[in-house]
Amino acid sequence: xxxxxxxxxxxxxxxxxxxxxxxxxxxxxxxxxxxxxxxxxxxxxxxxxxxxxxxxxxxxxxxxxxxxxxxxxxxxxxxxxxxxxxxxxxxxxxxxxxxxxxxxxxxxxxxxxxxxxxxxxxxxxxxxxxxxxxxxxxxxxx
Length: 142
Fold this sequence. Notes:
Layout: E1 9-15, E2 18-26, E3 36-41, E4 44-45, E5 56-57, H1 58-70, E6 87-96, E7 99-106, E8 113-114, E9 120-125, E10 131-135, E11 140-141
């Protein structure tokens, strides 16, 4: 069945003999905030693992396009090099005398993970056991 939504934008990418039609659909079509886009490449949705909808910012799409043109792997420059076992501090939601308190912990995931809305998280050990996901921008490497 064909897609009934109208694409926000589309382009054709030709690299050698390989040709791809890329369509961008506004995330607001799925109830997500406007400004991110869902991609459809050659008539198939470019979604995350297990069919979870993936949304990308214009900057991410531009980086992916540059990756497709150059053949070099997509690695976001803005992400800190967080890897399993690194000591970090993360906010714990409490404050004292107006200052936010932080927990010292360590990274449990192999690296940052991106959710369906395009935000980056890292898994850290919880005080008392278990794991929680923390936005990358809240993590400080020690």
